[in-house]
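Much of what follows relies on a compact textual record of a protein's fold. Here is one such record, which you should read through line by line:
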Amino acid sequence: MKLMLSVFTLAMLLINFAYAEVVTIGCATKCDVFFKIALKRVGKIKGVKVNLIDVSRAGPEIDWVKYDAIILPGGADIDPKYYLSKVEPELRDYTQSLDHLVNYSAEGRRRDPIEFGLLEKYFANSELETLPVLGVCRGMQMLAVSQGIPLYVDIKTELEIRNRRYLYDRIVMEPGTTLMNELFTKTFKGFKRHHQGIRVSYFQENAARWPQLNVTSYSNKGKIAESLEFKDRPVLGVQFHPENDFGFERNRIFGWLLEKAREHKSQKLKNF
C-alpha cells in the first residue's frame, strides 16, 4: 500500500511538472552549466519550467516581449571607459594610472557594448518596469556602471585586502526594509570570484545622485558592496555567486527571480 502511494505521489509530481508554467529567461551572454542547473532545480521547487536564451545571439534589437526575466552573469573585467566619462577628472586620472591592472579580454570587448546597451534600453523603457533583472558579480558591476557608478580597478591594490578569488566572504545586511533582509534573516557566506567591485566610498559620498539605488549588504567590514537594489524596478545585483551555492543562497536569489518572472509574465498576458 505504501509503495502504491509513493508511486502515485511521484506520478502526480511528474504530471504537475509536465504542465508547469514556463518562464523564459534571457542571459546577457550564454549562462554556464552552474546557472542552468541551479535555475532548473529552483524552478522545480517553484513549479516552473525555465527556458534559457542567450540574448547576445539575437543581435542589437532585443525582442523584450520574449523574456520574463534577464540575467547578467559573471565574467570578464569591464572597460573603465564605460564609467570614466561620468566621474571627476581627479578620479579619472587616478583610475587611468591603474589601467595596467584591468584584465582586458576578448570576452569583455564582446560583452561590454552588448550589456551596457541592453541596460540603457531597459532603463529607458517604461513598459519594462516589471521585468526583473538579476546581475551576478560582473553583472552587478555592470548594473552600477550603467548608472554612472565607478569601480575599484583592483581590490588588492586599492583596498589592501586579498582579491576575492575562490573565497567565501561573510555577507552582512544593512538594516532597514530591503529585499536582502526579506530574503535572508541572518548573515551568510557567499562564494566570490572577483578582483573589482563598486567603488564604495564614491557611491556613499555621492549617494544623492542615485536616489533609486541602495547598497544593502557588505563584506570585509564594509569595504566591498555585496548587493545593489533598485527601488523603482525589480532589479537586484549581487557580488557573490548564488549559482555556485548548494541551496541556501541559490533558492532565495533565484526563487525571487522566478517569482518576479511569473508576475511579469502575468502582467504581459493582461496587456494583450
Remarks:
- DSSP finds ten helices and eleven strands in the chain.
- The radius of gyration is 19 Å.
- The first strand starts at residue 21 and ends at 27.
